[in-house]
Design goal:
The protein has 165 residues and is mainly α. The protein is built from six helices and no strands. The protein is rod-shaped, with a radius of gyration of 35 Å.
């Protein structure tokens, strides 16, 4: 059942003709971000290990500068990975929002479409001659100031509220 819903969603999205962007670029950016994070961390560990064998403060300072630079590389990789991941997620979320809002708009439009009025019952259908003579307006009123059109509009409002919630 879940696969059927996914297939239906994909079919409906393709009908929307919404440009989904280049998802391939996001995958490449995620991989580049992971590589940058890994390189930054590995080089920092190597620089730390090499700085433990140094005695000259100038050499230690240059290793500190190198370590901070590669920490920045690791941070840039993390930011790139986060950007690509969020871009992919938000693209899907926005596409889902567009799909659902169009579906809700279609439901609202369908609810407010003018309905075909039903034919008034004839005297032969009711079986009483008094009903035929009195006409369709002789029935009891539905309430103060209400008519059948108001009742249909209220039913349509109730249907829209029920479908939205």
């Amino acid at each position: 059942m879940e696969q059927g819903r996914i297939d239906q969603f994909k079919a409906d999205v393709s009908k929307l003709k919404v440009r989904t962007g280049d998802a391939r670029r996001d995958g490449v950016l995620q991989i580049v971000g992971i590589v940058l994070m890994a390189v930054g961390i590995v080089v920092d560990l190597v620089v730390y290990a090499s700085s433990r064998n140094l005695n000259d403060p100038r050499d230690i300072q240059s290793d500190i500068i190198l370590a901070v630079a590669f920490l920045a590389v690791a941070g840039a990789g993390a930011a790139l990975f986060l950007y690509a991941s969020l871009a992919r997620f938000l693209r899907f979320w926005l596409l889902r929002q567009i799909y659902e809002s169009r579906s809700q708009i279609d439901q609202v439009v369908a609810a407010y479409q003018p309905r075909q009025p039903e034919a008034a019952p004839s005297a032969a259908d009711t079986g009483t001659p008094a009903a035929a003579a009195a006409g369709p307006s002789a029935g009891p009123p539905e309430g103060p100031g209400k008519n059948a059109d108001d009742a249909d509009a209220a039913d349509a409002d109730d249907a829209v509220v029920a479908s939205v919630s």
